[in-house]
């Protein structure tokens, strides 16, 4: 029996040795530098996937999706190297008396920064509306009507404002149930930024009504209003709207969540006079209108009012806030890692955008990102933009050649267009490659290596065998954790039995 | 220092003094180490509580000093640019907890009585085990289950109650109002979560009902229900109150399940209609707002957390006081 215990001890020791070996061999590849980041949950699916991609190339990126505001706070309190946020640093937080209580811009001055686009997406409006026993799938809205729905100004589906957008549709006289996010969310920030810009009168009246100063800025926390229901997480609002007892509900959510449940999303009127669906194509087309101010903040008015007939207006992107000096805790070594990471996700990483539920950044935004990388101390030299394997640049994702919208999607003043989802949704279907978000993330890992080798400017080596070894060792560790206690217990019991006999 | 063995002291007879175990006058190193460790562990718990309270106070100071007394009277929560206060969230927290106790206390009392006085001895242990297992289910699971499965089943019940009992003002629903994501639904789910602790304490209390009194009641011709009504329940009354308050303490702090279900509202009229859409609690407010709050907003959340901390401590302290003062709970440790 003693022999058996000894053998067990030996096995335990060997397992421990193997694992300490893993931790030792894993670190030198990244030259010991880990770049810490934090912020947006909205873009976290993409950032986490990209961080996993580059981890195999020895770049160590540690991203904590703790919310945009937390990301910005962590940036100026020197806890992270970079932050990801839907909105820029705010100088606006004031208390009821009007005194500024948090001026983020001033607080962040000690760590000069540059904003760069990271991932784009469209905010879709998923709804549950049954007309004559059948699910209605062809709802069309203009920005003003949409803003009125989400501020409580319209509360019946047969409101004349909705009816005038949907001529010939027998809209039911049931209450509109606007469903909002109860948690802080980047989707909320993107949508409220759109309303603040495109329906300022309605938005500002709403701000005053809920007790905020007029012309209040975009917010990550949607204020509660008469008739609203709030739910936690994108999944929560989507599930709530899709519930059979919620006929008449409408929410704002990432497009992927509506697709997952096969629920329709609103076709929104764009500046070109057409009703557009939030496909990856339509988002990328709209984002060609994005501009950046000299101070680095984004100007999305050109996106919201993009005159292209195919553009989806509520399109936006989230920023990375990257340091431009080596002020604590940043360094040139970290700049090298961060620069390579940014060059990866601006180019090869964008190939996954559509599948992860986002839209690839168009060339103009990639160029902005490249300009920003040049300002990061220690970052590698920026390659020519033509060598970037971003699908909008390689031509795999042909933004310019998207089919023009069908004539039926055009806004008409006269009534007479039949209901039914034929023309309008057909014009956009088949463009986005996205399926359910969760399914893709796991399946996508297989092709990581190929995608990475396709990224010419970075010239990173693929090393998937190292990953396989890692999985094996994790399995071993799990096995030892599960089996060691009972085995030890058995061994001890036998030993005790032997000594007592 | 003399250590007297209490079991021997109870015997109370002097002649066996010679047989008394010799008191250990000099402690060995091991004794001292053990004493120090246990003393340290006990003190550490208290120190931790104090440090948590202090941390909350320090972090919430800027919000408390900005809001002043209006912190307790304001119902809105707009720390960035507006007024904020815990009037609404505090009310919502107690409403959810009361709904939960309304379901959990009768269920727990019934379950505990069945286990102690009715169940055949063979199934007693499995029953105890099953009820305790309810506590092992993660609260996230309760929340998801409550939202996806329970909610559609409860909505028709809420509708029925509001149409048939609508003459009671707070049960009457506004025309067109929804019944999903309400205080009522959240309360039902929280009831399931506080059920194990309530049942465990009540079971403990009922099982200590003096056998002599029970047998006496039976000998006088009492039925089993008569015994329960006249001996077990009066004996366990204090313990039941304590168990309910312990459940209250737990229900006040429940976070994830409530967060998943309710649609947060800061409107007092909406809150006081528990069947209608809309509810709130301090814990879920913190969970929902923490990630996207400015540094001042976080300070305000800390202040709300401090309020919850103090209230929960008070409720638990009163609960253990009630239990230990009662005849049944004197030897019950909670």
Structure characterization notes:
The complex is a heterodimer of chains A (501) and B (334). In chain A, helix 1 packs antiparallel against helix 19 (464-500). The longest helix of chain A has 37 residues, at 464-500. Helix content of chain A is 40%, strand content 15%. In chain A, the strands form five sheets. Chain A has an eight-stranded mixed sheet with strand order 2-1-3-17-6-12-10-11. A three-stranded mixed sheet of chain A has the order 9-13-14. Chain A has 501 residues and is an alpha/beta fold. Chain A starts with a helix and ends with a helix. Chain B is mostly helical. Chain B has one domain: MetI-like fold. In chain B, helix 6 (183-207) packs across helix 8. In chain B, 43% of the residues are buried. Classes of the chains: A alpha/beta (501), B mainly alpha (334). Chain A binds chain B through residues 41, 66-70, 73, 90, 92-96, 101-102, 104, 175, 177, 182-185, 210-213, 216, 220-221, 223-224, 228-232, 236, 239-240, 243-246, and chain B through 66, 76, 78-83, 147-148, 151-152, 155, 176, 178, 180-181, 259-260, 262-267, 277-278, 287-298.
Estimated share of beta-strand residues of chain A: 5-15%
Q: Please name the CATH architecture of chain B.
A: Orthogonal Bundle
Largest interface: A-B, 43 and 39 residues
| Outline of chain B | flat
Task: Determine the oligomeric state from the structure.
Answer: heterodimer
Give a short summary of the structure.
The complex is a heterodimer of chains A (501) and B (334). Helix content of chain A is 40%, strand content 15%.
Helix and strand arrangement:
The complex is a heterodimer of chains A (501) and B (334).
Chain A: H1 2-26, E1 34-39, H2 44-55, E2 60-64, H3 68-76, E3 82-85, E4 93-94, E5 100-102, H4 104-107, E6 113-128, E7 130-131, E8 134-135, E9 140-141, H5 143-149, H6 160-165, E10 177-181, H7 186-198, H8 200-209, E11 229-231, H9 233-242, E12 249-254, H10 255-260, E13 267-269, E14 275-276, H11 280-287, E15 291-292, E16 298-299, H12 301-304, E17 315-323, H13 332-346, H14 363-373, H15 391-394, H16 422-426, H17 437-444, H18 448-453, H19 464-500
Parallel strand pairs in A: 1-2, 1-3, 9-13, 10-11, 10-12
Antiparallel strand pairs in A: 3-17, 4-5, 6-12, 6-17, 7-8, 13-14, 15-16
Helix pairs in contact in A: 1-19, 7-8, 13-14
Chain B: H1 6-11, H2 29-67, H3 87-118, H4 121-134, H5 139-164, H6 183-207, H7 211-219, H8 224-253, H9 256-261, H10 268-271, H11 282-289, H12 295-325
Helix pairs in contact in B: 2-12, 3-6, 3-8, 4-6, 5-6, 6-8, 7-8, 8-12, 11-12
